[in-house]
Amino acid sequence: MDNGHSIKLFFQETLISTLLGGYYYDSDLSLAINTIHTYLWAIFFILPYAFRQIDNKIASTVIYGVVIFTIFTILKLINYKFHTQIDHKERMEDEKKKGEEDQEKEKEKKSKKDENEIELETDNDQEKKTDNKEDKDKNKDKDNEKDEKEKDNEIDLDFDDSDNEKDKDEKDEKDEKDEKDKDEKDQDKDKDEPKPKKKRRVKKEVVHSYFDEFGVEQHYTIFTETSETEPDEKEPDEKKPDIPIKNEGDDNKNPSNPTFDYRDFITDDMSVEEINRIIYQREHRQRDPFGDFHDQFVEQRFDLPNNEEPPQQPKEEDISRVWLTFCGKKHIWKLDRRVLEMCFDRDLKKKSFWISIILATIAAVLVMIASYEFYDLEKFFLFISVATGHYCLLKSVQPDCHSPEPDNRRVIYSRAFYIAFFSALVLITKAICDSVTTEKYQIFQVQINFYPIFSFLFNVFKAFLMALPLFFLFGIFSQPTTLIIYLCEQFHIQIMGGTAITHYLGIVYQLLLDIIFGFVLFGIGYNALGKSGEFWNNYSFSFFCGFIIGFAYLASRLPNNPRFFHAIFKPKLLLYEKQEPEEKFYFSPLRKFLFDVLIALIIGLVYTGLHQTKMFSKTKRPDFLWIIAIVCGFIVHILIPQMRKAYPFSLFRNPILRSPELKRSLLTGPAKYTYFEIIYKIYIFLEKYIIFPFIILFALTDSIYDINSRGGRVFASILTGVLTFKFIRTSFHNSTEHFKYIVFCWLLFDYDLKGKHVESLVVNLYASQYLVDKIEEFVLKFKFYWRYLIPLNQAIASLVHIYLQAFGLAHSALEISFIILSTVFSTPISPLFGSSLFLLTYARSVKYWERSYRTHRIDDSRVKLSSALGIDSTNFSSSSNIDNLNAIFYEHLYVSLTHSLYDDIAAGRLGSVKQGDFFFLINDKLTSFLHVIELGNGFCSFQLRGLEFRGTFCQERELEKIKEPVDDNLRNAILPCLPVVTNKEILQLRLFTWESLSRAFVARTYNVIQTATTNAFSSFDFRKKMITYYVSAAIYYLIKTPGFYIAIRDEEFTRTLKNMVKKDYIDSDIITFSSQTDEDYDKSRDGISIASFEKFYSPWIRHCLEQNPSVDDIEEMKYISLEESTEEKPSYILGFCFVVSILARRLFATANLHQDNDFVVLEDNFLEKYYALFRGDFRVSNQKDEWVFYDMSLLENVIKKAATMTLKLQKNYFIMPTQYNDPEELYNDLEEYNQTVLACAESDPRWRQGIVEEQPNLISIRRQKRSRDDTYEYFMMELELKYLKFLAVKVNQESVRGLWSSQIQELVYFKNENAERGSIQRCEAIARNLICQSCDWPTGYPISISPILVSFSSSPFYPFSLRSNFRPKNN
């Protein structure tokens, strides 16, 4: 598609459509549809103007609401009825097709039966013929008679309708006589009438010439059919091909579709371009949605955009007759579903049908009431917004700027929702302005009049309501569900001190808990403040103070996971045994909840008793306690995390406080606690349960008099309860930031604003907490902004980026104002097209993404059998789906992190963590993106995203930069005598939006070893050894099977082995056996004989039998060799092992040689055969092997196990060739591997099950395409469960949220599908490509995305240890 056409589509379908709520003139649609859309939008715009002229507000509102309700109900019902009628027709057609198919199948079955019967009868006749021909010389006369009878019989069998033909001839003669009589009568009647001239169909051709886009003259011939009068003299017609122009779906016999004749439209004075345009328009006519085909002459060029096909007419079979009954008359139209969907959106559910009608009516009512506050030009812009909101409910905007994904149906309600929302805010603020007096209130010793504030808000909401189309154009407002989650989350965090929301249902639980805690605290506080006397002597007030701490502790222990609450209220669902392993609770949630309730009661009673000792009333504020909190907090939360980083203070080249795992290359267990980690955990415990509760109780006792005297009993009980509850609850969640609140409060209110703008201590702490959080958020946004703007960090990907870079620098003041606004409302700022021009985006929750899902892995249990065996081209194990196979490693990693992540965070191994932080966890194979969503007291919720193993060039360069160590040359350092980094690296480390925290973050997961199989299977010696191990393993598993001794005693089975246990038996299959691959190959007889097999494998068979004794083993072992066996007692043990070895090798030789359509070259058939055998593709094609059908479980329990375990044996042989010279060593290894090693294909469901269940060792073989040619290469995948070291890298959370928003806007709204777009090019300082790759599908392309998981602490409360109840035992 050329640039001009794409720009035109962008302005039509994107800009104009977004501004007008989905309306724009689409030249691809018919004139009728565009007319309907135009008039409908105009009606929605004019109606409020008309009803606004009514002076009575109630009457205009009611009439306007009824009219809108009626319009939407009628249109929605008509649309619904038309769709149901078309659905009914499609259903009937499907049933008709099924009936016809069933009839055809029955006819085929009957015809086959008849053919079989006829064949049997004709065969009998032919036998009779041959018998009669042999007796020709004896009785010639009799032979002739018999031949005639046989011929008659043959005619009766094959053509049994000779009598019918006679009857037909007689009927035809009668019909001809009747027709002659009728013609004679007609001639008599029409004697006086003039005879019309006869007409005939004449085919003519016209040669048309034109010039194409390259200026080359082209020719084509048009054949037309016309009716002309027949001339008197008949002229011989030239034979011409009958190729009339016919539109798809037309019928020449239908008079409504006349044949195209160019002469009706082309004149002599027309140019070639005009002729081309007319011919194109006539050939591609569009269908009238409410009638027959009509010609649509639109001024457009003949040449189409590149790669765009001309529009096609709907087929006749797709057209349906729909009708409506109105005023007793049935009105019928011809429609197809495509035209109907172009006219109005279809409501897929009844819920959306009623939501649209109700929302449109509510918006109309509220807008009409609010419109009386708008005047002159304000009404014009207001009613434009109303028209866009109503029109969008009928024909939505796709895509919309605030849509997080393409084809999102929830955005159709956004405009009407925000119209109703802001109209309600306008009415509320107007009512408040009318009721608020001019009385001034003092807050922070500032006299504030609320009337100007609400008047300002009233004007702001009016402006928002008028400018809604512009806000939707820039994507500032989100869809309604996202806004509701955001508002609930902000209330939960800012007011009640909660954590982030992770689930829709979790909102309900948390809001209910907040309301319950709020009412309980209000009741206790109201009762306490009503008592007379001093508050510190009042037991009710002490009870209020103590149980604020207890309730805050209990609330901090409850996650937002709805499954946790389900398990509490439904004890039968405690362990979720039917859920996936990563979704299980490895403890009893009910028991944990009851234990937390007990601890909360103890905490409440302890602090109630402490408050009764009057220790909190002797001093207003204990400065020593504040100093301890500030000094210890700075040391523990600032100095220690900095000294533990990979580059402390961005200055030193090695961590000052090192973990013991940093120097170890191999880890034998989990990370051990160091002395500074123990100090860190002890201080966090003291900080949570002693220091901050004491500080807040001193502040509450000091502030209660002032608040109660100024606001009254109700106000004081609500304010003190909420503010105290929030402060102490957040300290239980995460106390790493609270010392900053205390420092800020002390410096600001005791020094900067001393005696000027100071409130009570509880209010000061709350204000400090809010300001510090917003300042830190602003700093993160500003760091992302200016570090993204630095030209040294920016990779200029196109000419557009150069211009936007310059324009962005000139508007830095505007950008900073955007950053301030985004900080206030906690919204991301996103670079436009990845450039330096930043824009505001809509508000999102901490979770960010609206969807909650998990990556489903495809294996053999979820595909067709042909795909699993590799027969068809949709083989999911091909190279194009290697990412699907790698996703399982991330699945195990996030299962492992559910057991250990919170303990690592609590020990400070990831630094000072807050909810919303992002981390990269990187090792040699895995590159995972960790998002900490919720951080509570004893738990954290997170989501893990796995990136590709082998990524793009940009991804590899960014990973190299992150993994790159600092320069070891001390001469380039500032101070060569100290271990510091160089001057250049000091600057670089401060320009990155990410920082390396630890190079030894330990997690228990699989070490993936991927080695090429070329060396292990290249030479003939290796292949011969591999076949030997294959046969040995088959013998081992055969003897281990329980039915081995039962089979050799079964008479029916031993009868099949009787010929094979003879001493002279040999199997000489040239395709299967060869001296190059088989150790027991008998060269003298060109095959494998039982004697040669016994000579090589009898020691191994004896050893296996000796290790597996049974009741009758001793007697049977006497007849293992051929010399000891007799005809009466043959060696069935040897024979059984021999036929199994023959079967195993023949299955290997006849394994599927699979070739995809794209890959037709196979480098090595040997590896391809083994790969097919490894996956379980068994082809029993030789008649000698049909004995295996006696027990088909032999293939699964013996052959498949032997084929898979051979890979492990071959790998050991390649490492140490002399390892298995002794049969005992081979047997011991097979016994060990049978218990500890899982060998199967990666597409086998057992592979995933083994990984999730933490099988110690797994091995498989993988095939993937080479990048340089169309051949396969094979890799040995060996997994070993161990503790691995990861590089932990912390990323600026605002840069992640901003880049994600930029990608959503660019791909979904601007439809930039360029895979090499500039916004995802590498930028090492930002890690832009890695961050953009981790977006949700289809914006990004991670290979694995986990659900929202919860990691709990190994011990719920530090003085007690319930580790066995909270964590599973490791295998």
Structure description:
With 1371 residues, this protein is an alpha+beta fold. The strands form 6 sheets. Strands 9, 10, 11, 12, 15, 16, 17, 18 and 19 form a 9-stranded mixed β-sheet that branches. Strands 1-2 form a two-stranded antiparallel ribbon. Strand 10 and strand 11 (939-946) form a beta hairpin. Helix 14 packs antiparallel against helix 15 (539-556). This is Protein pecanex. Residues 155-164 have a biased composition (Acidic residues). The chain crosses the membrane at residues 31-51, 58-78, 353-375, 416-433, 453-476, 507-529, 536-555, 593-610, 622-640, 678-700, 784-804, 816-842, 1027-1048. Residues 1130-1354 form the Pecanex C-terminal domain.
Topology:
Elements: H1 3-19, H2 31-52, H3 57-134, H4 140-158, H5 162-189, E1 199-211, E2 217-229, H6 272-283, E3 320-326, E4 329-335, H7 337-343, H8 350-370, H9 377-394, H10 414-435, E5 440-443, E6 446-449, H11 450-466, H12 468-473, H13 480-495, H14 504-529, H15 539-556, H16 562-569, H17 589-612, H18 623-644, H19 675-733, H20 738-752, H21 761-789, H22 799-810, H23 812-825, E7 829-831, E8 838-840, H24 865-868, H25 882-906, E9 918-922, E10 927-935, E11 939-946, H26 953-963, H27 983-991, E12 994-1012, H28 1014-1017, H29 1020-1040, H30 1044-1047, H31 1051-1057, E13 1066-1067, E14 1088-1089, H32 1090-1106, H33 1113-1117, H34 1132-1149, H35 1165-1174, H36 1193-1215, H37 1223-1236, E15 1237-1239, H38 1245-1252, E16 1257-1265, E17 1272-1291, H39 1293-1309, H40 1328-1333, E18 1344-1345, E19 1349-1352, H41 1363-1366
Parallel strand pairs: 15-16
Antiparallel strand pairs: 1-2, 3-4, 5-6, 7-8, 9-10, 9-17, 10-11, 11-18, 11-19, 12-17, 13-14, 16-17
Helix pairs in contact: 2-3, 2-9, 3-4, 3-8, 8-9, 8-10, 9-10, 10-11, 13-14, 14-15, 14-19, 15-17, 15-19, 16-17, 18-19, 18-20, 19-21, 20-21, 21-23, 29-32, 29-34, 29-36, 32-34
Membrane topology: Multi-pass membrane protein
Transmembrane segments: 31-51, 58-78, 353-375, 416-433, 453-476, 507-529, 536-555, 593-610, 622-640, 678-700, 784-804, 816-842, 1027-1048
Family: Belongs to the pecanex family.
